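Supplementary Note 3. Input sequence used for the single-chain structure prediction.
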Amino acid sequence: MHTRRRLAFLLVLAGAAVAAFLLLRGDDPPSYSPLEIEGDPYAYESGREDEFERRAAAGHSHVVYAKSPGGVLATARRVAAFRDDIEQAADDSGIDPDLIEGMVLLESAGRPDARASDDLEGAVGLTQILAETGTNLLDMQVDVRASERLTRRLANARGPREADRIRAKRRRVDERFDPRKALAATGRYLKLAKDEFGREDLAVVSYHMGIGNLQQVLGAYGDDDASYAQLFFDTAPNRHPRAYRLLTGLGDDSKTYLWRVLASHEVMRLYREDRAKLERLAELHTGADSGELVLHPPDRTETFQTPEDVDAAYNDGELRPFPNEPARYGLRPAAEGGLRPEAFALAVYIGQGVRKVSGTNASLTVTRTVRPGDDIHASGFAFDIRRRYRSGAQAEAFQYMLDRLQALNLIAWTRDTDAIHVTASREGGNLPN
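The predicted structure, written as discrete structure tokens, is reproduced below.
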């Protein structure tokens, strides 16, 4: 609970009386495609909730692996130590303990002393609770001045015993630093939020976004029965635009919070059930600035080492030349080149999608495709798109496409000064030609 948006939660909760939200039902679930592409296999469908959630968790897992203090295995080990208290909080709140465990990993990496900043009015503790939220909503003892004084003393403690005594005093004056009480308070928050929304997924989303903000987004979307997967995947600059801009306007990763919680939940599952796979994923995630190596592990991905290899791949159909047909594809190559057919299909999906969503005919410029050597471009699955746009609408639509395809676990991408580096998965072959 580490954003100022908790204040909106307090204001809304005090006077709100919103009916409980219901699960989506129906024998013939509707399809939603902001791109309006006929036969789009990635259009949202309410009957595919679990699939969309799994994809989104995988697509947003890189940050969990790359930013876990001491590595993801050490983080999982710390979090696992609090499982009993997590299960108690889950019993009290009616929320899946695995979700709460994922929240602990994401919020603090299992560190009871974690602080978002030096200002203890901000978010601290195992579940990152704001001082005002703790005292005004969650019935916690939080004396910020005393906590700050003890924190300064802790920094100058003479040895482990004195440090332990100071920590014990701080837990008494600031219960956010007490893991058991912090988890119990988080359970109370989630129960309030679940009572308000009637859904577990929305309760988790509100922990970061705040109930007030989430209610505004749902109101703009116009469907109080929507799951978060529907809300996320069915909003776009050209479809439910007000809801989309409310989500993206939060500017603090609130819109992807649930996906990162689910990614953290998967980390903990692997820690218990398949540690070898977890170690392998950690190696791949930390080996690049995006999840590109997870999509294409080096030991399982053929690369083109020489220009002769590239020429042979064109002749064999392993690579597809990138045509200069911007009117058809929405993409203009800056130089000759090509991609694996699956990557080409996803590149075209982006180019055409940007046109449909933005309502413009402007094309994106592809500056780099296959390149022999040792980096990801040698696989034929990577391409770069110039960061030069004809309009704000085109830039917004391109960002939407990147976010959507990452959440579908179809691409990994990074940004530098001049270009967006995109690595396409092998799933592009599922797209209509």
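The chain has two domains: 6-18+41-262, 293-430. Confidence is low (pLDDT under 50) at residues 2-29.
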